[in-house]
Amino acid sequence: MGAPLLINFKFANVCHKMNPAGVIDDVIKEGNLNKQSKFWKTWRQRWFVLTPTCIYSFKAEKTYKDPTEVIPLKDCSTIKSAEDEVHKEFAFRIDCKDRTFYLTASSATEKESWIGAIGKAMVKLSARRNSEEES
19: exposed, middle or buried (C-beta count within 10 Å: 0-12, 13-18, 19+)? Predict the structure, then answer.
């Protein structure tokens, strides 16, 4: 996706091994999505970054500081369409161990792109973890 991202926050090592300069250089996908807030259920635009192990959200585009969410993919079980649940066009959900995240994309194509990229990253991470356990 281009140049490595410089990320400055205390939770980075929760799901991502960073080099000493605080750079994540394996971004799979990034872009704007709307996220439903946990308590107030309002929708806010956030800049999302998907890596092989995590999904991060930030308040501003290309401002990789102080994430509003850090979602370890190892804690996610499913990703699927959620338009009927939240009554919003291009909505999808990510089911995690302690929470379900509701997101909307700007188009059907973008929604399918995010679902595909996150789903693929979840499968790859699970396969990698399973092969490490067998070793």
Answer: exposed
